[in-house]
Amino acid sequence: MTSVNWSDFGHMAPELLLGAAFIVLVVVDLLLPKRSNRQLTVGLIGGLTLASLLGALALVGIGMAGLEEEGVVSLFGDSYRIDGFSSAVKLLLLSGTAIVALLGLGEAGRDEAIQEKGEYFYLLLPAAIGAMMMASSGSLVTLYVGIELLSITSYVLVGLRRRSYASAEAAFKYVVTGGISSAFILFGMSYLYGVTGSIQLAEIGAALPEAVADFEALVYVGFGCLLAGLAVKIAAAPFHAWAPDVYQGAPGAIASFLAVVSKGAALALTFRLMYTTTLFGGSWMAPEVRDDLFFALLLLAAVSMLAGSLAALRQLNARRLLALSGVANAGYLLVPIGLYITSTHSNNAAELLFYLTAYMMMTLGAFAVLSAVSRSSGHEELKAFSGMYYRSPWLAVAMLVFIVSLAGLPISAGFFGKLFILLGAAGAKSYWIVAVMVLSSVISYYFYFGIARQMFMRSGGSLAAGRERIPTGVPIAVVIWLCAAGTIVLGLFPGLLMDGVDAVFSFSRDFRP
């Protein structure tokens, strides 16, 4: 056991701030009146939740500046690591959660099923803590605690519409698939602990050569179960069947949270798990075993890209289409993690974080536009976008920005994100995954531009004529234009983020024991 001092709590200030804010908001929600001005009360809780997330974001930024002097901060016997990679991921996850909270403020005021529920906002705080723990995990214990903290709060958030059959069905499916995922993760962890005798990721990596020599099959089973469980959290095919139903049944802001924050945290955890245990595997792990594990990641990526894109071709519901788009994008995001099969590609982390940032901007923006459109039309089918350019031209232009970025066309954040990953795969001589990426992107043009066709090439006749401009509300409008601006800026100046990640991240520093 290692002692804990006050400086350790200082390093964990962002997590502690969110934890304290969560407790305070729960008490506030209990003490404030339930019947009078309840919407105002929920708005206050939402505002305080947003302020807490922005405060934690600022503390992570301050901590990143201090890392240049202190280097990697290892807490609780290297169970919790604060380094360049975890800090960059936390900035991204907290930014995404803050945007989700802002989107929730716009949705809660118009959704009778959730407009009086303060937990719609303050449950985002423990979920964010769980996501941050996943990014900083240095042991199997903190890894699992982070996963469960994020998962359990997500189950509750998905089922907040208690009188909605779709929401109840979505929550039930999510709980069942999430429980199966957790079982696989625990099963894999038990095998790795059994063959290595340690729960620390670095120590597991150091013990793997001997473990592979004596228990090769059990090493495969352990990593296989872990990757299968994490694939459910990432919504990667063939473990993605829950995603369309859950995204459709959950409140809009919570669906966007699952699509961006939950997926991003699981990807960051997969990156840390695989590279901490195998990055310096020339002496740690048998090369053939290491290559098999990373090939499995690339295979998972390929199946996700093709399955997500092909399934979306016949999709007429916009929310389900975005869910299947997320499956395909999970494949793109897995490619940088799996490229170690042929080379220690030094830009893996930068490629992953750049495209994850781009994906966050374009996906949250698309969910915000869908929220406004579905509220105006009363449904979430693609035909709800019919004639949107003639009713709300600027809203249609913003959606077009997100569509262009999701499709990966120049000049957008999504284009450069896919381009960097594709060039990295080509440099690693994984030409087959390059071909799959290109094919998946070409297939996706059909369903992405189906939305654009509805907006700009369907005057709508009775669908659009005489109907009022689509209202958005201030919070949703801020989300839309913030995400649109971020998508455009990253498309025009991609080097800013890539150089920033390279400046704070180092494989040898962040992932060495």
Written overview of the protein:
The protein has 513 residues and is mainly α. The chain has a two-stranded antiparallel ribbon with strand order 1-2. Helix 9 runs parallel beside helix 13, helix 13 packs parallel to helix 19 and helix 14 runs antiparallel to helix 15. The longest helix has 34 residues. It is globular. About 1% of the residues have low confidence.
Query: Widest sheet: strand order?
Result: 1-2
Strand content: under 5%
Overall mean pLDDT score? 87
State the low-pLDDT regions, or none. Answer: 461-466
The total strand number stands at: 2
Question: In one word, what is the shape?
Answer: globular
Distance N to C terminus = 17 Å
**How many helices does DSSP assign?**
22
Share of helix among residues? over 70%
Structural class: mainly alpha
> Main β-sheet, in a few words?
2 strands, antiparallel
Quaternary: single chain
Give the SSE string: HHHEEHHHHHHHHHHHHHHHHHHH
What radius of gyration results from the CA coordinates?
22 Å
Gist of the model:
The chain is an all-alpha fold and 513 residues long. Helix content is 77%, strand content 1%. Strand 1 and strand 2 form a beta hairpin.
Which helices and strands appear, and what pairs or packs with what?
Layout: H1 6-11, H2 13-31, H3 38-70, E1 73-75, E2 80-82, H4 84-108, H5 119-122, H6 124-136, H7 140-158, H8 165-196, H9 201-234, H10 242-249, H11 252-278, H12 281-284, H13 287-312, H14 318-338, H15 348-377, H16 388-391, H17 393-407, H18 413-427, H19 431-457, H20 474-492, H21 494-504, H22 507-510
Antiparallel strand pairs: 1-2
